[in-house]
Amino acid sequence: MKKLLISALAFYATAATAQNAVVSVKDKETNSKDEVVASYYLPKTVFDIEIEAVNKHFKAGPYASDAKRLFGTAADMQDKDAWEVKNVRIKQRAEPDPAQHYKVYAAYGSTGSLISLTEMEILRGVNLPMGFNTASNKCEKPTANNCREKRHGKKMCEESREFKTNFKYKENDSVPDKGNAEFAYDLVNSLRMAKSDLLQQNGDDVKDVNAFLESVEKEEKEMTALFYGKTCNEISNMTFSVSPDKEGNLEVCKFSARNGFAETSENISISIKKKNSTSKVSNSTGKSGYVYRVPAIADVEIKQGKNTLWKGTLEIPQLGSTESLPAGFFDKNDLKALFDNETGALLQISK
Fold first, then answer.
1. Closest CA to 227 of 289, 179, 286
2. Cβ atoms of residues 244 and 282 within 8 Å
3. What's the number of CA atoms in the CB half-sphere (13 Å) around residue 222?
4. Alpha-carbon distance 272 to 299, whole Å?
5. Would you state the torsion angle of the CA atoms of residues 147, 149, 151, 157, taken in this order, to the nearest 10 degrees?
6. 297 in helix, strand or coil?
7. Do residues 96 and 207 lie in contact, with contact meaning Cβ atoms separated by under 8 Å?
8. Taking residues 39-45, what's their average pLDDT?
9. pTM for this prediction
10. What backbone phi and psi angles, to 5 degrees, belong to 299?
11. β-pair partners for 294
């Protein structure tokens, strides 16, 4: 954070008669005889919406076609993926609003020319003391990628997708090879019988019953997966940046249970509805003064179709109104103004 203090003691004698003017950069030049001593922005809110989704990868078992014949219950024989949103987090950060950019006309050395700015040139205060800590915004200086979709790394499946299939064997020389599916079926039954014996206290000769039981259950699960398949989960974290400039619904991203984050999927949207009746005023050609925000309070809801993923109440500066401190307010008074660098609101006027 830096504090921009523009003053020149050599011109201090002229400060008493100076009149400050604050003019939008979009407007025509003022008739003031003073020079532009500073410019500043009001902040606008950007929502960083992080969506955590799980992709459930199902891999059919190699003996799925034999499940009905051997176990009596049919198994899914097709590999497939299924996506689901598990969590949504929303963070707010401030960026300079290009639509709210102002020039300050004042005599060098006047108290009204002592403008404090953040690193992003957002107004922080007027006539603040030299030692004032302007407290940095909670975001980095904006770059070309700030308003783009941000992708985070994926946590891959830890569980192996491979199956044990080397089960073909001969019981004795007079019996032909037993098929892999049949052998796996027999092994599942043997493991279930072994587990049943343990649970019925028939495993007294086993030194560590719990460890053996855990081993049996793990092996049974692997064998059963040969018929009914296995699923492993892959976590994806995606962050999308949205800066609303009006009420209503805005698209956050594309998402569906079938395709995940794909361009052809359905919408995840953010709905914004103001709770107060504040209207946005531009302070363009009327009274001159230090323009600041009166943020709007809005109900915010993130939805996937009819399903609500996140809901809350937030301040959104750019949907509120703008007010201004009168021109020359600081010339005849030893007053100081402090503004919120996140919302642009007036926090305090003091001597």
1. 179
2. no
3. 17
4. 6
5. 150
6. strand
7. no
8. 95
9. 0.73
10. -80, 125
11. 321
